[in-house]
Write a structure and sequence with these properties.
Helices cover 55% and strands 14% of the residues. It is built from 18 helices and 13 strands.
Amino acid sequence: MPKTTQETTKLSKKLLLDDAFIICIMAILAGCGLIYEYLLSHYAARVLGVIESTIFAMIGLMIVAMGIGSFAAKKLKDAYTAFAWLELCIAFIGMSSVLVIAATFAFSNTFPQLIAEIYGLPPDLQPTGGFISAIEKFAQWLPYIIGFILGFLVGIEIPLIARIREDIYQQSLTHNAGTIYGADYIGAGIGAAIWVLFMLSMDISTSAAATASANFIAGIAFYLRYHKKIKYSQLYLIGNLVLCIFLLSMFQKGEDWERSLENTLYKDEVIYSAHSKYQHITITKRIMDPQRPPVYSLFINGRTQFTSADEVIYHEMLVHPVMAASARHENILVIGGGDGLAVRETLKWQPKQITLLELDKEIVNFFKDDKFDNEKGRIINAPLIALNQKSLSDPRVKIIFDDAFNSVDNLLKQEKKFDAIIVDLPDPSHPDLNKLYSDRFYQKLYHLLQGDGAIVIQSTSPYHAKPAFISIGKTVKSAGFQNVEQFHQNVPSFGEWGWTIATKTGASPLSRLKDIDVLNIETDWLTLALTLSAFNFPINYYNDVNNILINKLGSHTVYQYHQQAWKDEQGIFATALENNTITQ
């Protein structure tokens, strides 16, 4: 019998509801897929240490895996059953990926120590090679393996959804692909916004659990609507019950589990670990002698920023030569250095004001506010505030939270002038940092500096990254500074390290330093003789200077020099024996 108008209308409404339901699920899963890409890239970069290479490689790998997954989807005959089980698998893998990677790295780091203890080997003779080397290599490749598997599964989703839509309508849909991909793109955009606005500052295990929860809810909702078409229902429900238990455990204990595993990546005890909007922050503590103060270290994204045992060498070399070379010390600009250690040294010159430009408020808060309790109820950052002598709370210190490139523009608009400028930024190990080592940035700083002032720039290692070091010096010269010189010193935590110092007019920095008899401030390590000797380099050090390029804005020259130098020195993956963390 022909259908009545009422029946036809009712059927049309059901089709529209089903379609809206499927499209919403597709959008949610697209957001989850993009978050998994970012999450795995972010975490893999942290444990491997090669931040930019790892992030780009992981995202590219997962995109390729999605394409392969799309081709493989045609092998799945029952779209409804396959889709329901697919979401269960993605949720399990996505939720556990961080902990599995962390556990594997933990095992690869602790296994050699365990073997050494069993056989009574001395600490400096831990076993290497063979099975141990294979474990380490597997740990380094595991993030990519998990990324490929997860990308492959995510890639199956769109073809299955397309087939389900056509089955609902009982016909081939003309604009099926366009509708599905439209939902996919919009959902991915929303996922990117969620990652940037919320999840970047969340604990990564919590982010993984939250994303897996979305897969879990989408899978359950799909099952409830189409359970009659899904096979192995009882087993599927048992799997979801197990997943639910694991998800609740991850929300409650995941951060503690991750932190415990993270401890094994460092030789010392991890006393603080947190995510800011911009980076992962880790503080470690080592007790070498009960009669002496503990040694504290700061790591950002797995890279050493300072160690309390020798930070004074770095920061006195950074600050005091440029201050001594400057005619006045009233108004000082410090760029970077949110730990307050460079500010501590600058305050010894009794300036009227120090303007500190720092991107990450979390770093400054940790080194300024003595309110960070751990689970035992003690203040964990009190020793670090003592280390910087509460410099960030000094009323003469004005802190501006912003990207340095933009902040400098604002200072120029205000027609600010500074007697000395201290640039204490991280190495140019990421494309985003390259602009802060560019000719354009140094031109801006040129206009901020008083005519008789001086500027100093942290310039990476002159030994491990020689082309990058020399390029920074040449770039500063190209920005208009009349006198540009470089100096270096050994900092045990970093190795051989270097700085670039410059003046706009008049005598060179070294000539100015030679004209003084003594540093007129109290230091713990630096002397005038050490300062002057730091300007000496091997006789052939600058032989290739004409072949090294200036870092023009947008060229990524220093970034590429830095990347290539460290790859040549250590390989793209290397185990840092000093701190038992994987770094570049």
